[in-house]
Amino acid sequence: MTAKIISIGDELLIGQVVNTNAAWLAEQLNQIGIKVDEILAVSDNGKEIERTVKSAISRYDLVITTGGLGPTKDDITKQCLARIFDAKMVLNEVILANNTAFFEARGYELTEINRKQAEVPDCCEVIENTCGTAPCMWFNTPNNGILISLPGVPYEMKTIVERDLLPRLKALNGGQTIIHKTVMTHGLGESFLSERIASWEDALPSNFKLAYLPKPGILRLRLSAFGSDEGALNAEITKQLDELHSLIPELIYSYNDESLESVVFRLLKEKKQTLSVAESCTGGYIAHRMTLIPGSSEIFNGSVVVYAYEAKQNLLDVTLQTLEKYGAVSEACVIEMAKGCRKLFHTDYAIAVSGIAGPGGATDEKPVGTVWIAVATPEKVIAKKFSYGDNRERNIVRACLSALNLLRKQL
User: Fold this and answer.
1) SS3 119
2) DSSP code of residue 327
């Protein structure tokens, strides 16, 4: 089955409400093998709703709408669907009884406006909404497809979908399966990574699809497989991921959709080892990311933000000679910072970062985006220079991720 999701409501189009319903629905449908080809948001305009729904039901096996089923005048989805299916609005006694009980339980009488919520097109199958008063409606379309109209309130919609719709749709879908695997990478941009794995990507089976999902410092690869034999799909995915790993082993840090700091936390916890951080240009961002993880106190001893020369000297024992000869943004400086941080906090590992986040502070030798990172381990200290762009916020994020990845490679 192929599907389209239509979200109805002006609030989605003016940015007042984020369309989380569509994202959640797409995820649920994918898990039962239904491929979502299109997601669209439309306004509370009758002509637009009717035009969009008519087009969708002529092209897709499954169309799901959310929103526009409330009791107020701007909720017009039911009336639009009645016109599309040339149906009459009728009072559904089951919905009426449920809604009456719903309001009585809360100390209210059923008003006329709420009574109208029990009216539905006479050609639909009603699916009870146990969390609210707007019913879910199931229509069989002229081309042997399905249209489902859901309330827009997220917890009402999710309850109906999980309880009633997913089991039914899964059975109707004939056992088709969609499997997604996410590969988390760091260290190479989208175009360069694409070149590295071009031969592998070109040789993927026809029922496989690869998507590139970049964000600052991280590139997710999503490998999707479609078919009816789940066991065979999983076996082929494992084979393909093994081949991918052989091409870019140094870039992959996880096969789950997880953060670099979570991977570092897990590895340190497994080894029962500790970490501390000395930050200059990142201003505490690495420590912030680490301490967002529940239980991080098991492995994270502490951090220092050392912007000024004096702070680097007094807290981390960076020598004045090093600072005057090489500057704070240098290999020599971050090595001494990492050593001093590890000593200060008595940790197994320490990260040190110093750079020019921008927009000011650059020189010809050290342009904006120049960052030195060091990792001190129980045996050695390694340091590496990175060159980013001219956006301060992105440079801080990228420096944080590069530092965590440099540490990960030592664990």
Assistant:
1) strand
2) -
Binning the chain into helix, strand and coil, the percentages to the nearest 5 are 45, 25, 35
Cα angle 314, 320, 325 (rounded to 5 degrees) comes to: 145
Whether the CB-CB separation of 41 and 76 falls below 8 Å is answered with: no
Q: Which helix (H) or strand (E) holds 405?
A: helix 392-408
- Residue count (the chain): 411
Token pair for 9: 């409501």
Residue type, 175: G
By the 10 Å C-beta count (0-12 exposed, 13-18 middle, 19+ buried), 87 is classed as middle
* pTM of this structure: 0.76
- Calculate ∠ Cα 242-384-353, nearest 5°: 110
Please write the tens of the pLDDT for every residue from 42-71: 999 999 999 999 999 999 999 999 999 988
Q: Which H/E stretch holds residue 149?
A: strand 146-150
User: Looking at this protein, which amino acid is placed at residue 112?
Assistant: E
Cβ–Cβ < 8 Å for 280, 328: yes
- Which domains, and CATH codes, for the chain? 2-172 (3.40.980.10), 177-254 (3.30.70.2860), 260-408 (3.90.950.20)
185 SS3 class: strand
In 271-392, which ranges are E strands?
A: 275-279, 300-305, 349-355, 370-376, 381-387
Confidence class of residue 117 from pLDDT cuts 50, 70 and 90?
A: confident
Q: What is the largest CA-CA distance in the chain?
A: 87
pLDDT digits (tens, 9 = 90+) for 254-283: 999 899 999 999 999 999 999 999 999 999
Among candidate residues 405, 349, 336, 408, the one with its CA nearest the CA of residue 378: 349
320 phi, psi to nearest 5 deg: -60, -35
CA 297 to chain centre: 26
CA dihedral 94, 100, 101, 104 (to 10 degrees): 180
Question: How far is residue 392's CA from residue 55's CA, in Å, rounded to a whole number?
Answer: 46
* Residue position matching structure tokens 């020019």: 356
Q: What whole-number distance in Å separates Cα of residue 304 and Cα of residue 277?
A: 7
| SS3 at position 354 | strand
Question: What span, in angstroms and rounded, lies between the C-alpha atoms of 331 and 387?
Answer: 14
